[in-house]
Design goal:
By secondary structure, this protein is an all-alpha fold. It has ten helices and no strands. Helix 8 crosses helix 9.
Length: 209
Amino acid sequence: MPAKVRRLPRGGSSRGRLWAADRRRQLLAVAAEILDREGVDGVRIPDVAAAAGVTRPVVYRFFPNRQVILMDLLEEFGSVLEERLEESVGNGLSDVEALLGSVLEAVCDSVEEIGAGVWKLLNSAGPDPEIESVAQSVRARLVRPWFARVAEVTGAPGPDVRALTAMIAAAVPAVLSQWLAGDLRRDEAVASVLRGVGGLIQAFSQARK
């Protein structure tokens, strides 16, 4: 059984002494809040230090540059999502639509808890090749478990399964971005994804008959 992932704490200053692991998580939480408010360009060592209530050397002890902060944020967010998706997939639901609904709620919970900034970074082109490489790796880890389930439901051949899984993976951030922009309520966004994915699954299932 995988170890439980410790959530990123809320940000904010903390001048008291923290254990190294707790300090690192606190700095990442602060960086996530800055990323959410100001975007990638706003995540700078001096600003993270000021918001966390520590000196710059404290931040540099954990992160040599802002690039590493952003990459670690992606990895931490990916770990939280993986844990929650495993819980959703393992909850005994056999219907794909019900399962996907549970997964989407888990994604939304994670975005609300950790911040939309990291989610947007995960699904963007990335500010540089190294950060984009980490984002691609995290996205691949999150999508990989769906291949077997999609193949089982549709009975489609491998190339179709890969194409359909890619479509589903693209639809989720595309629609959730409308929720984050305030154009859709959370429940409306989830329902829209479910309708779209249901149509795709039906089309690919019918194509083999």
